Amino acid sequence: MSQRNRSVIIIVAFILLIALTFHAAHARLQTQIAEIESEVSDIRGLERLGETTLTFRARDHIRAERGAPDEEASSPDEEAPSPDDGLERFIAFFRALELAPPELDLEAAFREYYSANVIGYYQFEGEEITILRQPGRQFAPLTFFERLIYAHEYMHVLQDQHYDLKQIWERVGKSENFDLNLATNALIEGDAEAVEWEVLDRLLTRMSDRELDYIIRQAEQGMTVMGASMPMPQAIEAAFRFPYEQGIEFVRSLVESAGWERVHQAFTSDRPQSSEQIYHPERYLAGDAPISISLPDFSEIIGDGHRQVYDSAVGEFYLRQHLMTNLRRTHAEAAASGWGGDRLRIYKNSAADELLWVWHLAWDGVKDASEFAGAYRRFLDLRYERVESRQGCWRLETTRCFARINETETRISMARNPETALALLDSDY
User: Fold this and answer.
1) How far apart are CA 326 and CA 335, in angstroms?
2) pTM of the entire predicted model
3) CB-based burial of residue 191 (10 Å sphere; 0-12 exposed, 13-18 middle, 19+ buried)?
4) Which residues pair with 121 in a beta bridge?
5) Nearest to 370 by CA among 334, 395, 328
6) Alpha-carbon gap, residue 399 to 414, rounded angstroms
7) Closest C-alpha among 233, 238, 235, 237 to residue 101
């Protein structure tokens, strides 16, 4: 046999070996996917109603596709709507509650945090699951942790097929209520988290000690995670964690109360309406809905030049975040835990770059209202100087006024002009 023929045979054999290796890896990947989908469907009691695809992308690809604020938005996924769905409202909301430094580019911060921390997501269009993976491993079987990510994202596929997640988010978007947004996302992500942890338990029970040691080494090697390149406001990080950390506890409470059928009911006919219900599942199960708040027309007080940019609830989650800008976490959580309902109306004067707002809160009881009043006065004492002519007002670069309206309601107002702040506080109650 000639040297040339021998070389050709070696090359052909090498190509055949690569093809066989690729085929074996692909077959293993498909087997893993089928096994995970079967586990998730068995846990949740939901069958797949259509096909889905799995795509692997590197973080740089995800950052370019989903992180750049000046690029055209990609297809919507199961996550809560991004800030550009109501960017002006989002920025005004964060500024009013002092949840971020005024000089921070909130849109860029939001996108940066997302693109730096995302490890997988599901897109409505095309029913496509995307998992973060380093270049060069696009055709390898799933690692242990990728199996868990796939279980989480596949649960979103089943949610979408059975409950129509896109329609749910469209309804939430029409409410323009950030608190309802959080509560809805907590149900969706909490459901997927609970299923993911159940899959984890099942995988661990079938593992040998040797396999478990290998998984622990994998976890130790993967502890380094890319962080955001800019400082993140605590409220943004907390808002991203809330649906996962509190959502799973909420869903587990529903399962403990009446099995997965109760979670099914939460999606179809009884979705949570507030972050309070997520923090306190017993209140949700008892039917404790948010108290509806009405506010008068403030146009005569405000005058020309201001336009309304927000008129909806704040909720217990963002109330906690607001209080934590000046109070300890335990004090903030205690003061916010009696939340019964609220409404914040924000007005903006673009020419003067000025905000003014009125925030009316209702409490579950007299004790809750009193506890909040004491905490908020401490909050204002730490942040502002007291205005001597009125005990209920504090002033720094702006004036903020606070009052108990009755035994179970409070109101806060904020404006640069003290007279305007007082008039907003006193109007029609």
Assistant:
1) 13
2) 0.87
3) buried
4) 130
5) 334
6) 6
7) 233
Is the sign of the CA dihedral 421, 422, 427, 429 positive or negative? positive
Alpha helix segments (H runs only) across 45-164: 59-62, 87-96, 106-117, 144-163
> 232: which residues sit within 8 A by CB, 6+ positions away?
109, 112, 113
At residue 169, the 3 state secondary structure works out as helix
User: What is the Cα–Cα distance from 139 to 92, expressed in whole angstroms?
Assistant: 45
pLDDT in tens, the chain (429 residues): 565 555 544 554 445 444 444 445 557 888 999 999 999 999 999 999 998 889 888 877 766 665 544 433 444 566 554 555 578 888 999 999 999 888 888 888 888 888 788 889 998 887 899 998 877 676 788 888 999 999 999 999 999 999 999 999 988 887 789 999 999 999 999 999 999 999 999 988 877 766 666 666 665 555 444 455 566 789 989 999 999 999 999 999 999 999 999 999 999 999 999 999 999 999 999 999 999 999 999 989 998 889 999 999 999 999 999 999 999 999 999 999 999 999 999 999 988 889 999 999 999 999 999 999 999 999 999 988 776 556 689 988 889 999 999 999 999 999 999 899 999 998 876
Can you spell out the DSSP letters for 345-410?
A: EEEEETTTTEEEEEEEEEESSHHHHHHHHHHHHHHHHHHSEEPTT-TTEEESSSEEEEEEEETTEE
Instruction: Report d(CA 393, CA 418) in Å as an integer.
Output: 8
331 DSSP assignment: H
- Tokens standing for residue 423: 């008039």
Distances (CA, A) of 53 to 50, 123, 128, 131, 337: 10, 10, 5, 11, 43
Where residue 348 falls (left for φ over 0; alpha for ψ -120 to 50; beta otherwise) is beta
Considering only the C-alpha atoms of the chain, give the largest distance between any 2 of them, rounded to a whole number of Å.
106
CA-based nearest residue to 309, from 107, 98, 92:
92
Token pair for 337 = 């835990």
